[in-house]
Design a protein that fits this description.
The complex is a heterodimer of chains A (198) and B (154). Chain A contains 4 helices and 9 strands. Chain A has 198 residues and is an alpha/beta fold. Chain A has a single domain, classed as Rossmann fold.
Chain lengths: 198, 154
């Protein structure tokens, strides 16, 4: 027996999975806009949005890489969705990052190939806040004019790495930032400009 | 996936899960009604029907092939703060999968195991054995021996 009891998954599998998937689509098609996802899962060391995204998006074809090797959480996901564990970051279809400050560079994750850019990884990054970090300006598909986003807790070179990620389009990773029950998408099509001194 | 090394009770558990899966739903409901009130039940995986691929072989040496798919319903739940019980059963009977998981969870509780073995699993096992025995007897009674006469030299 695992020392920590397994937590439940979706209470209403079909509708909650559809709702979470719809929210993920909304988040990625309207970059920078916060969407609400999920309901807290009792006894689980993940935020509601992260838990519901993982339940809705992963299955036995999508290896998941965990930045922090929390056994109970990985067992929980494997029980509910049969998602396998990715041993290394480049082999992952989804990466769960709970400490953004020490995350590997974006180039460490699968970016897909020119023939199949869809083979890239999707990063799920839990942040302390989606609202009170340094301001950056986002442009691109799904954004009218510009969108100012304030993500807290990202590493120093993150936006430089993001520019390289955006430049490698159609390859590159997509990111969904989560904070408790909220999620915010950053697809590879989004251009980012840093605002100094705000 | 076998975890025999982790849990030496797996053989016993496999046996009672088999007995429970072969039991009928009324038998399980009846057995449940004999229990005193239970702690609250938490569904870790609500009952869900799905499919499993059945594999078979032609003869003892043939290659395995996919015989066809069978509908299976599974469920996982916890009774109070006890162990996780799982139930798998052929067919689409969600309630039966739930009952099997419930009894599996209770059977893993050492304080209840002996009583449940005596009151629930034992009688179910006896009934299933006698049914199987009766079926094989009626089949044996209709057995026809085929044999071939040795052909003559002529």
């Amino acid at each position: 027996m695992s020392p920590q009891p397994l937590s439940a998954g979706f209470a209403d599998q079909v509708h909650e999975a559809q709702a979470a998937f719809r929210s993920a689509l909304d988040a990625l098609s309207r970059p920078g806009r916060t969407v609400a996802i999920g309901r807290p899962v009792a006894g689980l060391g993940l935020g509601p949005a992260m838990a519901h995204l993982l339940l809705a998006l992963t299955d036995d074809d999508t290896p998941v890489w965990w930045q922090q090797g929390d056994r109970a959480v990985a067992d929980w996901l494997r029980f509910h969705t049969s998602a396998t564990l990715a041993a290394t970051a480049p082999g992952a279809a989804f990466a769960v990052i709970s400490d953004a400050a020490s995350m590997p560079p974006l180039a460490a994750f699968a970016a897909g190939s020119a023939e199949s850019p869809e083979d890239s990884a999707t990063l799920l990054i839990e942040l302390a806040s989606l609202e009170d970090g340094p301001a950056v300006e986002w442009h691109g598909p799904g954004i009218r004019d510009k969108q100012t986003v304030r993500l807290a807790g990202l590493p120093e070179h993150f936006w430089t790495q993001w520019q390289a990620n955006h430049a490698s389009f159609p390859q590159g990773v997509d990111i969904v930032f989560t904070c408790a029950g909220a999620a915010l998408g950053l697809p590879r099509t989004t251009r980012v400009r840093r605002l100094e001194g705000i | 996936m076998t975890n025999d090394a982790i849990n030496e009770n797996n053989t016993a558990r496999r046996r009672w899960l088999g007995v429970l899966a072969r039991a009928s739903r009324p038998e399980l409901e009846q057995a449940l009604s004999t229990l005193e009130s239970l702690p609250p039940i938490e569904h870790v995986r609500p009952p869900e029907p799905g499919m499993v691929m059945l594999r078979g072989r032609v003869g003892g040496t043939g290659d395995a092939f996919n015989l066809g798919e069978a509908t299976v319903t599974r469920c996982a739940l916890r009774v109070g703060a006890g162990a996780l019980g799982v139930g798998y059963t052929l067919g689409r009977d969600r309630r039966k999968a739930e009952l099997i998981a419930l009894f599996d969870a209770l059977m893993q509780d050492d304080t209840r195991q002996a009583e449940l073995e005596r009151e629930v699993v034992g009688p179910l096992l006896d009934r299933q054995a006698s049914q199987r025995d009766a079926a094989s007897r009626s089949a044996a009674a209709s057995k026809v021996e085929f044999f071939t006469f040795v052909r003559g030299e002529a």
